[in-house]
Structures are given as C-alpha cells and as structure tokens.
C-alpha cells in the first residue's frame, strides 16, 4: 500500500483519507493495529472517575446552517460552511485546547433498542452524542 501524503483526516470510510487508510498517513501507523479503535467497552472497575469543569461551546454566529442526514446508524449534522469559524469546543477535560466543530453524531434508540456505539461493562445504552 502506498503512503497517503496528507494530514487532513476525513470521517467517511470511502474517502482516501478516511479511517480505513489512516494507518497509511505518516505518524499515524498505529491506527491500523486495531487495538484502540472505536467502538470501545469501558470497564468501570478499571476506570478512574475525574471531575472536570463544564465544557464550553462557543458559537461565532447566532445561527449555524447544518446539513442533516441519516447514515443508517446515526443522525449526522455537518455545518454547511466548514471553512468559516462556526463553533468551537473547549474547557472541561480539554483544558485550554480549542477544537473546531466539524460534525455532530446522534446515536438514538429507545427502551427496547440500544443505539450507543460504545459500552460500559458490556452494556450499551439507548443513545450517544459524539
């Protein structure tokens, strides 16, 4: 396999710079080992509880236009204008680091359908936002 000469990650598995090819990007070879990838099962007995200040959502506009689609397993929202400074997340466990909002995933189920991707002690929940 040839190395991908880029450092712009994409979330679509169908793109050359998507998750199936992240291990071919210099410096990200471990993405191909399959040992620490999503979904994960968090073992509560080995987890450490930490209290953090609240996350801060900083929007640079009163309204943000988003394209919403159902990808078959979740509802995904993408800001229409990804080049503008639409919003940032900081604070909490992120500390002083600031992350631009690229998309929002909603995994939603109900009392009879567990839709979360990740689990706690092997138990999935009815929903998840990431």
Element-level helix/strand string: EEEEEEEEE
Uncertain stretches: 1-6
Amount of beta strand: 25-35%
Query: How many strands appear in the DSSP assignment?
Result: 9
- Based on CA atoms alone, the radius of gyration comes out at 17 Å
The SS-based structural class is mainly beta
Question: Which geometry do the CA atoms define?
Answer: globular
Q: Look at the structure and give the mean pLDDT.
A: 76
Q: Which sheet architecture does the biggest sheet show?
A: 4 strands, antiparallel
Strand arrangement, major sheet: 3-4-7-9
End-to-end Cα distance: 31 Å
The helix content is under 10%
Task: Compile the SSE list and pairings.
Blueprint (H helix, E strand, L loop, with lengths): L40 E2 L12 E5 L6 E5 L4 E5 L7 E5 L6 E3 L3 E5 L10 E2 L6 E3 L1
Parallel strand pairs: 1-8
Antiparallel strand pairs: 2-5, 3-4, 4-7, 5-6, 7-9
């Amino acid at each position: 396999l040839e190395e991908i000469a880029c450092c712009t990650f994409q979330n679509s598995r169908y793109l050359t710079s998507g998750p199936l090819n992240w291990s071919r990007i210099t410096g990200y070879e471990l993405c191909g080992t399959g040992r620490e990838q999503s979904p994960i099962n968090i073992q509560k007995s080995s987890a450490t509880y930490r209290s953090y200040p609240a996350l801060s959502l900083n929007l640079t506009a009163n309204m943000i236009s988003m394209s919403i689609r159902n990808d078959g397993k979740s509802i995904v929202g993408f800001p229409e204008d990804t080049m503008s400074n639409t919003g940032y997340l900081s604070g909490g466990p992120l500390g002083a680091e600031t992350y631009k909002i690229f998309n929002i995933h909603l995994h939603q189920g109900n009392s009879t359908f567990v839709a979360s991707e990740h689990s706690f002690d092997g138990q999935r929940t009815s929903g998840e936002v990431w």
